[in-house]
Amino acid sequence: MANQFVVAHIIPTGVGADIGGYVGDATPATNMIASIADKVISHPNVVNGVVLNLAGRNVLYVEGYSLDRFFKGEAELKEVEKNKIGVVLDKGIETEGYDLAVNTINALRTVGGVEIVCVLKTKKETMTQAVKTKSNSFVGEIEHEQTLIEACREAIKQGAQALAISLNIKIDMKDLKAYFDGKGANPYGGAEAVVSHLVSATFGLPAAHAPLLSKYEIYRETHSGTVDPRAAAEAIGPAYLGSVLRGLDRAPRLVTQGGDVRVNDVDAIILPYTCMGGIPALAAQKWGIPIIAVKENTTVMKATPDILRMKNVIVAENYWETGGLLAAMKEGIDPLELRRPVKKLTIA
Question: Which PANTHER family does the record associate with it (predicted)?
């Protein structure tokens, strides 16, 4: 991408990120980055906001497993104007859950112009659940993954170019309350990552997950009182499929060659300061991509640049500072030349 300034904005799922640990609350930061960069590569966790997906048009919506393949150099991103989307719903939820899902799908069709080729239900319940770790982050387990794979395969046969998955994730309601109170990580996040990674790894198509809620869960979310502002989108209406369908509508496809964006096109990667242990951060060391580590975006993780002895990392106190760094980098200015005192050079 000659003369294009390309940035990746990544916030890991289920780690209690202060910015991006809730649904869509990192969208303002992402759009600020997108106002500077020509292209921003990000992932569903960063911009999904229940029924809302307000990411800028130059934000590329890439699922986490596919993002890892991209940064390893195994795949490239091919931009598209439109994807035909297949929707897969979990079996076993009361009618109210399916009604909410179908109404959400139809709303995105009639208002957003999203093209849906099929809506399928798994043959049996997938039995997906959230698992809390000792660090208070969340991962997930899926017991009947084959029934999900079979439904996805059928959706592809019917013409799906992207897959929207909506499973019921079993969570502890105490964890949901802590999350709504701003005192815990997103309990759905880890399990959602497991599901989307499984589908992406199996089929190589754009994919994303949205929780499918039971009647009781719908009631709990919409009757939670005044919640942490970052969780407000969920409390006013848990139509999670909306943001996923909007993101998948133009999500880039993965190709092995002939893509529009390659890993060596990336000029910078932005991550929370304590989340340097993932593949994008480690790949940045291999490819020589500068990392901007945002200190103010705290998480429950402790993988800092110092602990991992990482090079090529610029520490920013907050996203305001990040914007300034990106503007300097885009203009070809060494950010250090904007600080004082100026380092003196010596003749060796």
Answer: OS01G0127400 PROTEIN (PTHR36891)
30 and 90 both lie in a single domain: no
Contact residues for 190 (Cβ-Cβ < 8 A; gap 6+): 13, 14, 130, 131, 137, 138, 139, 140
Structural domain count of the chain: 2
Instruction: Find the CATH number of the domain harbouring 60.
Output: 3.40.50
115 and 72: one domain?
no
Question: 185: Cβ–Cβ under 8 A, 6 or more apart, which residues?
Answer: 14, 15, 16, 21, 136, 137, 138, 179, 300
Q: Could you list the residue range(s) of the whole structural domain that residue 171 is in? A: 85-251
> pLDDT tens digit string along 328-348?
999 999 988 998 998 889 998
Q: What is the pLDDT of residue 2?
A: 63
The set of residues, in sequence order, having a beta carbon less than 8 Å from that of 69 and lying 6+ positions away, is 75, 254
* Distance between CA atoms of residues 242 and 74, nearest Å: 30
